[in-house]
Amino acid sequence: MSRPTGRVLTLLELLQSGGTRTVAELADRLGVEGRTVRRYVDQLIDLDVPVESVRGRYGGYRLAPGYRLPPLMLSDDEALAVLLGLVAGRRAGLTTAERAANETASAKIRRVLPKPVARRLDTLLEALAFTDRPAESDPPDAGVLLTVADAVRHRRPVSIRYTDRDGRRSERTLHPYGIVAHAGRWYVTGRDAGIGEDRGFRLDRIADARTLPGSFEAPEGPAPAERLLSGFATAEYRYEVTLRIHGTVQQIRAHLPAGIASLAEHAPAAGRDRAGVAERWWRVELRAERLDWLPPVLAALDRPFVIERPDELRDLVTALAARLASRARGA
Fold first, then answer.
1. Which of 54, 67, 79, 235 could share a disulfide with 59, CB 3.0–4.6 Å?
2. pLDDT tens, 36-67?
3. With the CA atoms of 247, 248, 249 and 253 taken in that order, what torsion angle do they form, in degrees rounded to the nearest 10?
């Protein structure tokens, strides 16, 4: 590669890092004069790279948004970071496109990696293991995701076609507060204008989203992620469970996070500790479709607890305790 060509590519890389670069800054980085920088910019424009000239005291050059993505120039570490992001996103179930798009993007980057870098990546992927399982759900439609994101940013209502977990379809008007990635799925939180209540919707269950005229005011209070987790904790399920657990907030939350259970102080304690680091009795409430997962969680918690309801959970805990005692005796 000739030196002028190499400098033109370096100029492109500098512009791709974002922001406006002054002529003096670019000339210093490239080791050339200002008029040579302008000549290099003209060469990029001839190659259909959208370079804008910015006038004024802090003027210079920057890449303009265009219909085509300009050629990317990634360092070895940047290429590894992008590929690992694609792998981790697919494994966590947080890809925003169909699996084929994720795989073809990975293949395009891998194809241009130097062999030593590709070998390093393969070695890492062979040694890499994940402790969680990806959620079994389809990725959200990219058009829906971008439409909702734009509505969140500009506080615009959207009309959505939604299918709930029971297969019921409906059209709703939503005032979206934010988008949340949780447990391998994408959600949007907002106010359902039809019922006047806050709701969380899985983005992969939204078939269509259209921005509507008008605007809305974002409410004060919890952030979108907190609203989503609070909604999970109070959702309607088959069983309503109430427990009293003696311990600290941290001990309880390590096994029953906010997305699963709500937590409130059962009785005031002397020397009240607002940070929740002192041990005391807490009332824990949650809802669940099944109860069989709860006895092992309570055993792992290893704190004194009282089951207020339901009786079925008390029976399951007693049965687990009997099995453990029997095995401990070698019976």
1. 54
2. 999 999 988 888 788 888 887 767 888 876 53
3. -60
Overall size of the chain counted in residues: 331
Look at strands 51-54 and 169-182 and give their pairing.
Answer: unpaired
172 to each of 142, 149, 195, 275, how far by Cα in Å? 19, 17, 9, 40
49 burial type by CB count under 10 A (0-12 exposed, 13-18 middle, 19+ buried): buried
Nearest to 171 by CA among 198, 144, 199, 192: 192
Q: Tens of pLDDT along 68-89?
A: 555 566 777 777 788 888 877 7
Is the bond preceding 310 in cis, omega lying within 30 degrees of 0? yes
Q: Is 121 helix (H, G, I), strand (E, B) or coil?
A: helix
Residue environment code for 96-130, b if the CB has 16+ CB neighbours within 10 A, otherwise e: bbeeeebeeebeebeeebeeebbeebeeeeeeeee
Distance of CA 149 to the CA centre of its chain: 13
Sheet strand arrangement including 206-211: 197-202, 185-192, 169-182, 158-163, 206-211
Q: Say how far apart CA 109 and CA 288 lie, in whole Å.
A: 44
Rounded to whole angstroms, what are the CA distances from 43 to 6, 9, 11, 145, 251? Answer: 12, 10, 11, 37, 62
Integer-rounded Cα Rg, in Å, for the chain is: 28
Range list of β-strands (E), 77-166? 158-163
Is the pLDDT at 155 greater than 90, yes or no? yes
Cα–Cα distance, 191 to 219 (Å, whole number) = 10
CA-to-CA separations, 326 to 118, 320, 329, 331, in angstroms, rounded: 53, 10, 5, 5
| Cα within 13 Å of Cα(45), Cβ side | 12
